[in-house]
Design goal:
The chain is an alpha+beta fold. Strands 1-2 form a two-stranded antiparallel sheet. β1 and β2 form a beta hairpin. α1 packs parallel to α2. The two termini are about 25 Å apart. Helix content is about 30%, strand content about 15%.
């Protein structure tokens, strides 16, 4: 989630790594939603991990969590049943 990939975009950018990640997450979240399955994204927070959905910001006792990829979060929320339309375009 920290690589800058836009998961709302098309899965046909010409970048194999991004294309596979986008297509995979769009497909899995849609299937989870359609079949009313449960879904968990692991790791929510893991320092130094490109899959981490959140990161720590601040220092000392003033630390908070911040989302690293809004489009990735939107797909997870879609899987969990939020929204009326998929957060990505379809052809």
């Amino acid at each position: 989630m920290t690589t800058g990939i836009d998961y709302r975009g098309s899965a046909t950018t010409g970048n194999a790594d991004a294309d596979n990640s986008v297509a995979f997450l769009q497909t899995v979240t849609t299937i989870v939603r359609e079949r009313h399955l449960g879904a968990v994204f692991w790791p929510g927070l893991r320092t130094g991990d490109t899959y981490s959905l959140e990161e720590l910001q601040g220092t000392g006792s003033h630390v908070k969590l911040a989302v690293t990829n809004e489009s990735g979060l939107a797909l997870l929320q879609w899987a969990w049943g939020e929204g009326k339309r998929a957060p990505f375009g379809t052809r």
